[in-house]
Design goal:
This protein is mainly α and 217 residues long. 72% of the residues lie in helices and 0% in strands. The protein is built from twelve helices and no strands. The longest helix is centred in the last third of the chain and has 19 residues, at 196-214. It starts with 10 loop residues before the first helix and ends with a helix.
Length: 217
């Protein structure tokens, strides 16, 4: 907590202080404190922030606070941000917010983002992480099917595979070992014409994931 933000301010004083501060970290401390208040005045502050604050992250945070309190318009605002984001950090914040509100019910929507090849690569990776967050069982099942479809080294999505392997490790999903080993065989065969260093890096990543999953720490 910043020493410049007193700990005993009421909601009205905190709102006044927020507009006086220029330091982002201090403003964040004030926002943290305001989340503890549930009053019409604070709700109006969040509504104004959601539409008017200069910081897009603050606007998303305000939408998140309101949506968690049952504001359907705010939830729609978060979904609109996810649908057409201007920035990956803002996208991730909105994604996490909706995941916290909807839980496993959000899985189909976030899975669709991952599978949407027109989406930015960073957005698809963020969606993969949130998939695991809201429903790890369905996520590893979807990842199993994904792994079973891979094998062409020239088009191998190594950035997505890193997230798949981490999900497998976090969930101790040893059932994926035969799928990974079969994929490794396909990659080994299809990568023979690759640059040697690139080939070693690609195959090494998969081998390391298999070894870690086979013998977890």
């Amino acid at each position: 907590m910043s020493d410049d933000v007193p700990s005993d301010l009421d909601a009205e004083a905190l709102i006044e202080l927020y507009f006086e501060l220029e330091d982002d970290d201090e403003r964040e401390v004030v926002l943290d404190k305001l989340e503890a208040f549930d009053s019409p005045m604070v709700a109006e502050f969040w509504r104004a922030a959601a539409h008017e604050d200069d910081d897009e992250l603050v606007r998303v945070r305000a939408l998140s606070v309101l949506a968690k309190r049952g504001d359907h318009e705010a939830l729609a605002g978060l979904m609109a941000t996810i649908e057409d984001p201007d920035d990956i950090i803002v996208f991730e914040e909105a994604l996490q917010a909706v995941a916290a509100i909807q839980g496993a019910g959000f899985f189909p929507a976030v899975e669709a983002i991952w599978r949407d090849e027109s989406r930015d690569a960073d957005e698809r990776r963020a969606a993969m992480t949130v998939m695991e967050l809201v429903d790890s069982e369905r996520t590893v099942s979807a990842f199993d099917a994904f792994v079973a479809s891979l094998g062409d080294a020239a088009t191998f999505p190594d950035d997505q595979m890193e997230i798949v392997l981490l999900a497998y490790l976090r969930t101790d999903h040893e059932a994926a070992l035969p799928l990974l080993e079969a994929m490794l065989e396909r990659l080994t065969a299809s990568s023979r014409g690759m640059d040697e260093d690139e080939r070693d890096e690609l195959l090494g990543m998969v081998r390391e994931g298999i070894d870690l999953l086979r013998s977890p720490a």
